[in-house]
Design a protein that fits this description.
By secondary structure, the protein is of the alpha+beta class. Helices cover 46% and strands 11% of the residues. The relative contact order is 0.10.
């Protein structure tokens, strides 16, 4: 444990001891990952386990971090979050996460009855605020849950992250066909004012052109649209795996993101920001822009902002006051943008023609004297 982390640990523990000694009659157990039971933060809350169940949600107080809580593609993750989520499921309720700016705020809000359970790391504990709730937590909790949650999270990132058939990035290179869905990309990419080939490159990165693709986080279809986003875009779950409605919704979402990042004047740069936001969330991208600006760099240059996006996995940066969305697994998002740009360069030689129906469609190129017509 580094000296700074050790100091934070000691301060938090001292704070817990101080608060406990102030209201001894209202003490409750702390369930720690090593199985120990100690005194808890006192609480004035009278919100019992029955009230939690009647209300239908458990309020979870924590700070952003890889061990506590972070957002990944619209899915909450973090070891402590996964345990709290399972406890909420055990109670038969939903889980509402309240992110606090620091450990002192977490403790204070729990003390004042503004939450039901909390987690900190360090000292890596889960506390409950009310007697019946803390007793249920004590009976339910097993020390092995920490390792189980850590393994569960690791498995999410290593095995079958997206269930899909892997098709070739070119359906027929010599005929100028990228995929079976070229006509749909050509139809809907103009909604976002994008080159249809860039949207095709993004789709391949998302699903490998498999309309039945599903991610463990819940994203569906060719453009890997999350259920909440689908509802926002008017895409029903009954249609989410259908190619045309899915691509249409994807283009609509790209249009929204293009407007959201309308303060970036360079169109190609804006597309990079939009790709990053599509993958990692617009809030994290804005956080990286704020960090770039704070450090005197160009907040509208992807080259500059991507460096600060990478730093959002570092506590020094994701706990910076200008950061609003906390910790981020950013390496995947940066790689996502680079891979799409690389594939788009490969697709650059695919031409278009007008079909008999008036729609745009790829045209088979004339035989060229050169051996290679396309960039590889």
């Amino acid at each position: 444990m580094c000296p700074i982390v050790r100091k934070i640990y000691i301060l938090v523990v001292l704070l817990l001891v101080l608060l406990t000694s102030c209201k001894e009659k209202q003490q409750g157990p702390v369930i720690a990952p090593w199985g120990a039971v100690t005194d808890s933060v006192p609480s004035d809350s009278t919100f019992s386990i029955g009230d939690v169940q009647a209300n239908g949600e458990l309020i979870f107080l924590t700070i952003s971090g890889p061990e506590t809580y972070y957002d990944y593609h619209g899915r909450g993750l973090g070891v402590q979050y996964l345990i709290a989520e399972k406890f909420a499921q055990h109670l038969g309720v939903g889980l509402r996460v309240e992110i606090c700016k620091d450990s002192a705020e977490v403790v204070n809000r729990l003390k004042n009855g503004r939450g039901d359970v909390m987690a900190l790391t360090p000292p890596n504990v889960i506390l409950a605020s009310e007697k019946s709730l803390k007793e249920e937590l004590r009976k339910w909790y097993r020390p092995e849950m920490i390792d189980e949650a850590r393994k569960e999270e690791k498995l999410m990132f290593t095995v079958n992250r997206v269930k899909r058939h892997v098709y070739s990035p070119f359906l027929n290179r010599s005929a100028g066909l990228i995929s079976k869905y070229d006509a749909l990309f050509q139809k809907y990419a103009p909604v976002a004012r994008w080159d249809w080939r860039l949207m095709a490159a993004q789709c391949y990165q998302e699903s490998c052109f498999d309309p039945q693709a599903r991610s463990w986080a819940g994203a569906r279809g060719l453009m890997q649209i999350m259920p909440n986003t689908a509802a926002h875009l008017g895409l029903s779950m009954a249609q989410i795996h259908e190619p045309e409605p899915n691509i249409s919704a994807g283009a609509k979402y790209l249009q929204e993101l293009m407007s959201m990042f309308g303060d970036i004047p360079n169109f190609q740069e804006r597309q990079n920001f939009v790709l990053a936001a599509y993958n990692g969330g617009p809030g994290h991208v804005r956080d990286a822009m704020a960090l770039a600006q704070k450090h005197g760099e160009d907040a509208k240059s992807w080259s500059s902002v991507s460096r600060y996006l990478a730093l959002l996995s570092n506590p020094e940066y994701y706990r910076d006051p200008v950061v609003k969305n906390g910790y981020m697994r950013s390496s995947e998002t940066i790689d996502y943008v680079e891979r799409i740009r690389s594939r788009y360069a490969q697709y650059g030689g695919v031409p278009m023609r007008r079909s008999h129906s008036g729609g745009a469609s790829p045209v088979a190129p004339r035989k060229a004297k050169k051996k290679y017509r396309y960039h590889v």
